[in-house]
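Morning, I've got a small favour to ask if you have a moment. The fold is given in discrete form, as structure tokens running alongside the sequence. I'd be grateful if you could look everything over and explain what you see. No rush at all, and the record is pasted right below.
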Amino acid sequence: MLLDLWLGKESGIDVIPEMLKRIPDIAIIVVTAFATFESAVEAMKRGACDYLPKPFTPDQVRAATRRALESVRLRHRLADAEHRLEQADDDWFQAESASYRALLAKAARAAAADAPVLLRGEGGSGKTVLARWLWQHSPRKDRQFVSVSCASLKPAQLRDAEGGTLFLDEICDLSADSQARIAKLFEERADIRIFAATNRDLEDEVRHKRFPEDLMFKLAVVTLVVPPLRERVEDIAPLAQYYVTRAAQRQHRDELELADAARRAMAAYAWPGNLRELRNAVERAVIVSPGPRIELDDLGIPSVPAPAGSEPVALGADVSLDELEREHIARVISRAPTLEVAARTLGIDASTLQRKRKRYGLS
């Protein structure tokens, strides 16, 4: 933004904080015919990136603009580097569940190809982290990764991704103008690899004319469906321990462990917020837990009684049908608002559910 020092009776310097609040990535160059040392210092203190006294030549404007754009690019690269450090630990991807192992095998093949990838899945299921994993295992891993929220996509972000990878988060939030810009990248065969993500029914968006069908096909050369956490029960314990370790390091606490009751409840809970909810619950527990173990009360999730010594049951494990049924009923009850709703979900009547609860000792 080229901002004059004087806007009628108002001072341009006074609007700088509001502009930065509305558009955080903006670079503001203050221009004025009344240059003073004091106003230059004040403009910089308020957040301007440059100060250009009049009269100036077109070349001077171009040079100032180039400097401003470069400062924005450097900020993006720094933020990207910090995020990569935060997500660098591959322990996050040590999956036990068959569904996620199958996803990672397909993702590895997709990463090696230089083609668009569409990531689908519920909010908080890990689409953004998987997009970075794809980039880090792709031929473009040594070039820039530009992650943008589609609700606030800017042309400059497309330019920043030239030669690298562009991640479009929540593509259903793209405006009609931004949809056209992305489609143009394909038409011009721009040197940008595109990953896109959505938690909505994209076909429904197309049917209602909110998203162009041809763009959907261009983005979905490879489609990866990220399973919700409730379908990855075997992964809950290792993921929780990973989050505990990372959170304990940040809080400068000694090694913490999860109590058995906490582990059982985490395996039985439906986690509607998926990985995001699990991470937040663990981080909160690390902060509030007074002792060396994280108890169920520290997590703030429903409890599910279990016989002494029992472990969370997984499909295909060496357990009896009774144990499998007990575990399934306990999980459905934990996330249902009423027992009547739980009975309907299980396909049985309420009286049958009551008998099974009594048989398995479920409260």
In short: Residues 318 and 324 are 10 Å apart (CA to CA). The radius of gyration is 26 Å. The first helix runs from residue 12 to 22. Residues 231-303 form a domain with the Helicase, Ruva Protein; domain 3 fold (CATH 1.10.8.60).
